[in-house]
Amino acid sequence: MRHSMVSDKYEKISALARRRGFFWPSYEIYGGVSGFINWGPLGAVMKRKIEDKFRDMFLRRLGLYEIETPIIGPEVIYVASGHLKSFREAMVECNRCKKRFRADHLLQEFANLPSHETEKMTLKEIAEALKRHRVKCPECGGNLSAPQYFLTMFKTTIGPYSDAVGYGRPEAAQTIFVEFKRLYEQVREKLPTGFAVIGHALRNEISPRQGPMRLREFTIIDLEFFVDPEDPCCSLLEQVEDETLNLVLAEERLKGSEKPVKLTVKEALSKGYIKSEWQAFFMALAKRFLMDLGVPEDKQRFIEKLEWERAHYSSQGFDQEVYLDRWGWVEVSGFNDRTDFDLRGHMRESGVDMRVFKPHENVRVRKERVIEPVISVIGRTFKRDANKVLDLLSKVNPNEVEKQFKKQGYYMAGEFKILPSHVKFVEREVKETGRRFIPHVIEPSFGSDRLAYVALEYAYTVKDGRVILKLPRDIAPVQLAVLPLVQKDGLPEKARALYKRLIDEGFSVEYDEAGSIGKRYARFDEIGVPLCITIDYQTLKDETVTIRDRDSWRQVRASIKSLPEALWEYFRFKRNFEDLGTSL
RNA sequence: GCGGCCGUAGUCUAGUCUGGUUAGGACAUCGGCCUCCCGAGCCGACAGCCCGGGUUCAAAUCCCGGCGGCCGCACCA
User: Fold this and answer.
1) Protein CA A564 to sugar C1' B32 (Å)
2) 3-class state of residue A235 by DSSP
3) Residues of chain A with CATH 3.30.930.10
4) C1' nearest to CA of A85: which nucleotide?
5) Is the domain covering A364-433 a CATH 3.30.720 domain?
6) pLDDT one-digit tens code per residue, A102-157
7) Which residues make up the CATH 3.30.720 domain(s) of chain A?
8) What is the spatial distance between Cα A256 and Cα A259, in angstroms, rounded to a whole number?
9) Does residue A539 have a pLDDT over 80?
10) CATH top class, domain A478-583
11) Separation in Å: B20 C1' and A28 CA
12) From the alpha carbon of A483, which nucleotide's C1' atom is closest?
């Protein structure tokens, strides 16, 4: 961290963003509330174009789908997802110096309790343990307050006078899991398949700062990709297998180093560093995504999360980080193997079977040894409990029962002693038409606001003391500016006609005749308009215009007639600037 | 949430210590003049003491509280 009196890039970008309408803090006229920002006229368009780029790369091209779901959800959802338990921390405050600490950290440090133990403790148990081990404030030795939970979900009630508790979603993922059964039917029971939500999420951060980087309300892009755990191969791997990734592995981090290794996707998988092929695939895609947003590959890395850093649902996780001028490495996306954790949780709480059925290629007939209870004997022996016993026996493993019979002459099914006379073992033919299982989930998740900020930071350049936002042409909020060279001799009229024409062709265009031509170029450079089209005296003679490139300030001359098609190709990266006309 | 520093037009800033005329300037913006390709020049306009309370004849200035920002601590599932 730097103590800069000189303003850093973040400050410069914030100032520009506020002045020109990319982003700024919300509710400023009432003093502002930290953790909330507005995206302005330019920022909202740019952010939407970034989200559209995600839609193109991750959904359209892969045949996956986007859905739109509510932000508020009933409490049970966050019971099932584990957030109500995990999305909070027991904290204590020192009565003397007022410093606050995580209670579990204190217990681990001063009472030598392992983390898996402190994790399970209730508030009461934590309070007792703190007392028992005489834990004091590690800073000043003062007495600590009773532990209290701080829940980082926004809580509300649903309906008037209702005691139905609801929460703002801290991630959009749960709204997908909850609907999985129906969605799976709608895509005609296809696996693998995936659904994305691009929408707001809420997290009641204790003390958010850092402008658009850490918000209480932000746009999350969650893609939940469902796979058969027994068929985890990625069918699209060849598209990315030679893509290189900068990986900071957990084993390296445990040694206290953050040295990245540069490996191809293929290598990272074969060495077992990335456990899931689909995870690796999405990471590679994310790398390309960020490169397309202007972040060079050496400013990107994937850092493997250590066990205790991972979310409660994750079995392996990488964060994609981008190097930023002010904060160093900052997370822009996360890749988690969520296994069947979430669907299993919703099965448990709702009682709905979320398993999918996958038919075998051929119906298999298998001989199976099963337990057949001798009902008459069981009835006589267990009387009232007979049904309970039958239920238990239907779930036991026959081989295990047989083993116990051989070993000790009986088998304990719960509290009931089963004797060999209670059951028969029979060979039965079982037709296996398929299998039922809970799909596993690979989740790429992006913070849209961070992506937008990152794109701005990497676009921000200074040339001859002037700011140029070198935004990739497909996310620039304004595509074209049409400018009469001077404000007389019929040039404005000619320019306005061209402006209308280009608007009609579907471009986002600005018209501007105020001030000198240089001043206007500068203004449009500052908001990242890729091309300026200038109407000059030559235009009046031969219907040609100059097109000026934002980044090189070079110009070409082109006929008005050729513009619409050429420009469409340019903005789809099918044509270079030099090929828009003849060089000047 | 704690501590330190800070808060004057859209932006940057003078003035605050030592209370006192109409809060001064620059850039930006808008209008006009000028202008044949890179924030040119001239004229004019718009626009400000974070909010609340207190002290005082008088508060941008002193005091208290709040809000916000930056940095550090903590937090970031």
Assistant:
1) 36
2) coil
3) 9-75+156-342
4) B77
5) yes
6) 777 777 777 777 665 676 677 788 888 888 888 877 666 777 788 877 788 888 88
7) 364-433
8) 9
9) yes
10) alpha beta
11) 33
12) B37
The more confidently predicted of residues A96 and A227 is: A227
Tell me, in Å, how far CA of A559 is from C1' of B36?
19
Picking from A515, A541, A581, A522, the residue whose alpha carbon sits closest to that of residue A20 is A522
pLDDT grade, residue A320 (50/70/90)?
A: very high
* Positions in chain B where some atom is under 7 Å from a protein CB: 1-3, 7, 10-12, 28-31, 34-40, 50-51, 66-77
CA of A483 to C1' of B32 (A): 20
- For the CA of A90 and the C1' of B71, the distance in angstroms is 27
**Predicted pLDDT of residue A6:** 47
* pLDDT digit string, tens, across residues A355-411: 998 888 777 777 777 777 777 777 778 877 777 777 777 777 878 888 888 888 888
- Eight-class DSSP state of A305: P
Compute the distance between CA of residue A428 and CA of residue A303 in angstroms, rounded to an integer.
52
Percent of chain A with pLDDT over 90: 58
Nucleotide with the nearest C1' to A86 CA: B77
Highest mean pLDDT pick, A113-117, A257-261, A418-422: A257-261
Can you say how many angstroms the Cα of residue A162 is from the centroid of all Cα atoms in its chain? 33
State phi, psi for A289 to the nearest 5 degrees.
Answer: -55, -50
Task: Give A216 CA → B5 C1' in Å.
Answer: 26
The CATH number of domain A9-75+156-342 is 1.10.10.60: no
Phi-psi region of A335 (alpha: psi -120 to 50; beta: other; left: phi over 0): beta
Nucleotide closest in space to A553 (CA vs C1'): B38
Q: What are phi and psi of A114, to 5 degrees?
A: -70, 155
What's the Å distance between residue A26 CA and nucleotide B12 C1'? Answer: 22
Going by their DSSP bridges, the two strands A423-437 and A356-373 should be labelled as: antiparallel
User: Which nt sits closest to A487, CA to C1'?
Assistant: B35
Closest C-alpha among A306, A346, A518 to residue A438:
A346
Q: What is the ipTM metric for this complex?
A: 0.83
Residue nearest to nucleotide B69 (CA to C1'): A209
Strands (E), A374-506: 411-413, 416-418, 423-437, 440-447, 460-463, 466-469, 480-484
**d(CA A342, C1' B4) / Å:** 45
Residue nearest to nucleotide B31 (CA to C1'): A514
Nucleotide of closest approach to A214 (CA, C1'): B76
At residue A4 the predicted structure's pLDDT band, cuts being 50, 70 and 90, is very low
Taking the C-alpha atoms of residue A456 and residue A452, their distance in angstroms, rounded to an integer, is 6
